[in-house]
Amino acid sequence: MKLSGTRDAGKADSWYEGDPDVLSNQLDGFLSGVPTSVNNSHLPIAGAKVIIAPHAGYSYSGPCAAWAYKCLDLSKAKRIFLLGPSHTYYLRGCALTKFAQYATPFGDLTIDEPVVQKLRDTGKFQDMPTYNEVEEHSLEMHLPYIYKRITQTFSSRDEYPTLVPILIGDNKSPEEKQFGGLAGPLPSRSRQCLRSELRLLSLGTRKPRDPPIHESIKLLDELAMDAIASGRHDDFIDNLKKTKNTVCGRHPIGVTMAALEVLAQNTADADKYKFKFVQYQRSSLAEVLSDSSNVSSGRGAPAARAHFEN
Predict the structure, then answer these.
(1) Do 62 and 164 share a domain, yes or no?
(2) What is the pTM of this model?
(3) Are 223 and 243 in contact (CB under 8 A)?
(4) What digits encode the pLDDT tens for the residues 59-81?
């Protein structure tokens, strides 16, 4: 298949500023709000090639995403894999782009057509429907940050890395390992003990106070982050099963962890393939079930939440 056309910056003026000057100033402000070093490492962190960042409107997620993107080391990047969950249609498996370019208010990002075709030739990937691809904000929200960081890293467009966007569907653990295998070649004790104290809240449940809902959400998220930081895909999947935490990017994270595990098998320094969390933020502090409090999307409210009991 020959890729063609340009995917428009469809969320400009909706999820973020469409004016390139205004948007550039906004992203520069978010990035300047991040320290120049984290955990005694100067930013960008040398060799930091994989990040997890939120995909909400920038008024919710922009400052938090800046931490991830300021840590990202693109100095030797030839291509960028962008993985996001599907919000606009039900997808089982993974899907590839049919566009040759992705537009941003700053300029176009070129799709790596040979790599996309190589993945398509495996027979394991679908194609994204055009409408759904254009409307998918989990991919869109990263594009301005990617373009901004590319221009900060490289002096010439000829040096810009290409882009490989992949939509990750509702996959089971073995499927995530399978897709991770295709891409790969190219907790504290106090939190652990709380697993047995989880109960599910429903709309008829009296407002919890000890602790409040937002503190339980934080503990759930910390358990998920501990599992991700372990570097073990199975630990992350087991955490989601036990806590029922609805991490929006759980499937892209799972595929990425599976790919990193493949790479870690061939090195003596497996720790360099593990995530280290540098920032955690929420859109609001939920007090009742109808409140919205999302780390990665900042939108919507689930019908039920898990809650820790003291």
Answers:
(1) yes
(2) 0.74
(3) yes
(4) 889 999 999 999 999 999 999 99
